């Protein structure tokens, strides 16, 4: 997978996809992380570097929310990254969810982990949700099928939530616009 290049190794295509998906996911946690053996920017393909730049900038724009939700976690014990059952304990459909999580109480994150996978099913709990990839409002209480290319992660903003307007403004910014427009 790794290719030697002038005395060091470059990230192969498969490792680049894994790295990109990991960065997309961890951008919505308290600590953005890199995964895999290759972690230096000079080892990445140009596409992987661009994705990494977008998500690290987006993570920085989310810092006020990370700090707010971290304070809540310290005061109440409710974590920043939450399983949907913490937000919807009476919804039996959330109990078996393994690959969706909340960032705070307003943003539902549905990462794609499988290689060469560009769509997935996402369960949206009751309420109204703003699909941040396509800008449509969706009624919850059901599963939806969503497509997301290598630079995209399915995200849903809970309409009417306390942080709706502030988070929506973040996702109207330059970084998320570039993610949505990615080919």
Cα-atom Rg, whole angstroms?
A: 17 Å
The chain-level structural class is: alpha+beta
Number of helices: 6
As laid out across the biggest beta sheet, the strand order is 3-4-5-10-7-8
The total count of strands amounts to 10
Distance between the termini: 24 Å
The description of the largest β-sheet is:
6 strands, antiparallel
In short:
The protein is an alpha+beta fold. It is 34% helix and 20% strand.
Could you characterize the architecture of this molecule?
The chain is an alpha+beta fold and 183 residues long. 34% of the residues lie in helices and 20% in strands. It has helices at residues 13-26, 46-61, 63-76, 84-87, 164-170, 174-181; strands at 3-5, 8-10, 81-82, 101-103, 107-109, 119-124, 128-131, 137-139, 142-147, 155-158. A six-stranded antiparallel sheet has the order 3-4-5-10-7-8. Strands 1-2 form a two-stranded antiparallel sheet. Strand 1 (3-5) and strand 2 (8-10) form a beta hairpin. It starts with a strand and ends with a helix. The relative contact order is 0.14.
